[in-house]
């Protein structure tokens, strides 16, 4: 496969870019919205190129581990990372909940200043993926807006809270 499927989600938040950036980059805020409906535990968060974010999402059936490796950090404009499925020792592995899901995704998040609002563009594409992983991502990507959308609703609440301070 040569053309890779891409998931893109654009969203305007009613808050200045600096606050939206904080919601994405401060672990005390990030864990509150990332993975809505589950307990998100951030084991490590080094916000710098080649820095690592070790993330665990705890749910009733066990934990989903993610190893995120930051590739680009341009405050407050852009984040680029490799989003990897991992085991409990943070080794990159096939996702045990969905074995055909790509082991690694290239994730790009941009933050566009719109005065008192911020446009966030989130995109993911499979990286170093097999044909089966690409096909799985292509099949599932249209449904990804739901989970991210629920997280974004929590970001809305966080931003209102931060602006009220």
Description:
The chain has 165 residues and is an alpha+beta fold. The chain has one domain: Alpha-D-Glucose-1,6-Bisphosphate, Chain A, domain 4, CATH 3.30.530. Helix content is 28%, strand content 39%. The protein has four helices and seven strands, in the order βααββββββαα. The protein has helices spanning 17-25, 27-33, 131-140, 144-164; strands at 7-13, 39-45, 52-59, 62-74, 78-86, 104-114, 117-126. The chain has a seven-stranded antiparallel β-sheet. It is globular, with a radius of gyration of 16 Å. The termini are far apart. The model has no long low-confidence stretch (mean pLDDT 94).
Question: Can you summarize this structure?
Answer:
The chain contains four helices and seven strands, in the order βααββββββαα. With 165 residues, it is of the alpha+beta class.
CATH level 4 superfamily: START domain
Task: Supply the number of structural domains.
Answer: 1
User: According to CATH, what is the class?
Assistant: Alpha Beta
CATH architecture: 2-Layer Sandwich
Strand tally is 7
Biggest β-sheet description = 7 strands, antiparallel
What structural class do helix, strand and pairing data support? alpha+beta
Give the rounded overall mean pLDDT.
94
Subunit organisation of the chains: single chain
């Amino acid at each position: 496969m040569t053309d890779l499927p891409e998931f893109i989600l654009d969203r305007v938040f009613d808050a200045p870019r600096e606050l939206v950036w904080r919601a994405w980059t401060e672990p005390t805020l990030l864990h509150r919205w990332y993975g809505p409906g589950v307990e998100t535990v951030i084991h490590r968060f080094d916000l710098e190129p080649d820095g690592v974010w070790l993330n665990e999402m705890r749910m009733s059936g066990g934990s989903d581990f993610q190893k995120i490796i930051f590739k680009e950090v341009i405050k407050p404009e852009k984040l680029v990372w490799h989003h990897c499925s991992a085991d409990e020792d943070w080794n990159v592995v096939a996702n045990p909940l969905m074995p055909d899901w790509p082991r690694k995704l290239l994730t790009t998040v941009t933050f566009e200043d719109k005065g008192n609002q911020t446009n966030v563009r989130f995109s993911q594409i499979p990286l170093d993926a097999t044909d089966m992983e690409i096909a799985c991502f292509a099949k599932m990507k249209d449904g990804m807006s739901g989970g991210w959308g629920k997280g974004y609703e929590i970001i809305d609440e966080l931003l209102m809270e931060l602006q009220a301070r």
